[in-house]
């Protein structure tokens, strides 16, 4: 049983359109470059692979990519792009599901680890990543830094998109580290569609502790896929943890 929201058929069918800016070459190419370099000659495993936004171009670079994904409708969308032979996927929970084989790279893109909404499950996700890695292999996450610094006293929402087609804002509960992203999208027929997704936010330091619990060691932290240095003003991070060469099975 997972705490994650389940992405249904409707959300899956609209995903590539509503996330179009995340498919833009200037967003995707640096991510694929970064991950291809870390995978090297070895296979890669994407947790929460979705419709294959990252996995499909990574596989096109010659990296053997597998996935774990909770939502069958998201996998159905992926299957419109690549076959199960090209990019095999286990439908299951990234905190617990097992894929056969060992990987030089396990990664979770675009804040998806936050879809696990308990600390226990997030810890288990790190442990599951470590379990799938060869010694010397790497676990990479792309995650925002919680936008709490933007909250003046008394304000309960932080906008992240304000255009004539899309208004999006996050609300946070500082006690439980739970958050919700709210989206109001104007449709072509003039009506507005509301959607929300829930997450548990984590700071980089909490990620490091989860990695340590999984026997992983921090190797690199940058602000984005283009490897901009990570500073106290960074709003996101790409973190790379390594499974030590001398680690025994976890
Ligand atoms: C924002 S989308 C990201 C998809 C893809 N990684 C990308 O970058 O486009 C989040 C994905 O996480 C999946 N997901 C949520 N909870 C999950 C879980 N516990 N295990 C595996 N996948 C999960 C959702 O079904 C959805 O496909």
From TrEMBL:
Keywords carried by this UniProt record: Methyltransferase, Transferase
Keyword Zinc-finger: no
Domain of life: Bacteria
GO BP term, pick one: methylation
Claim: Cell membrane is one of the keywords in the record: no
GO molecular function list: methyltransferase activity
Coiled-coil stretches: none
Pfam families on file: Methyltransf_25
Domain Methyltransferase: 45-137
InterPro entries on file: Methyltransf_25, SAM-dependent_MTases_sf
Full protein name: Methyltransferase
Organism: Catellatospora citrea
């Amino acid at each position: 049983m997972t705490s994650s929201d389940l992405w249904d058929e409707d959300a899956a069918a609209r995903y590539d359109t509503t996330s179009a800016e995340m498919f833009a070459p200037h967003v995707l190419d640096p991510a694929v470059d970064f991950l291809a370099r870390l995978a090297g000659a070895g296979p890669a495993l994407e947790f929460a692979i979705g419709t294959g936004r990252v996995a499909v171009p990574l596989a096109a670079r010659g990296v053997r990519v597998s996935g774990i994904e909770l939502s069958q409708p998201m996998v159905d969308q992926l299957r419109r792009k690549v076959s199960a032979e090209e990019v095999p996927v286990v439908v299951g929970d990234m905190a617990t599901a097992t894929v056969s084989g060992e990987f030089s790279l396990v990664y979770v893109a675009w804040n998806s680890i936050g879809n696990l909404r308990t600390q226990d499950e997030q810890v288990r996700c790190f442990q599951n990543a470590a379990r799938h890695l060869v010694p010397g292999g790497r676990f990479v996450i792309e995650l925002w830094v919680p936008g709490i610094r933007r909250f003046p006293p008394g304000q309960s929402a932080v906008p992240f998109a304000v255009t004539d087609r899309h208004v999006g804002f996050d609300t946070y509960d500082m006690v439980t580290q739970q958050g919700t992203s709210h989206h109001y999208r104007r449709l072509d027929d003039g009506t507005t569609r509301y959607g929300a997704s829930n997450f548990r936010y984590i700071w980089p330091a909490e990620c490091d502790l989860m990695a340590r619990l999984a026997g992983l060691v921090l190797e690199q932290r940058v602000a984005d896929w283009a490897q901009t240095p990570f500073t106290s003003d960074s709003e996101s991070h790409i973190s790379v943890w390594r499974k030590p060469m001398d680690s025994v099975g976890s």
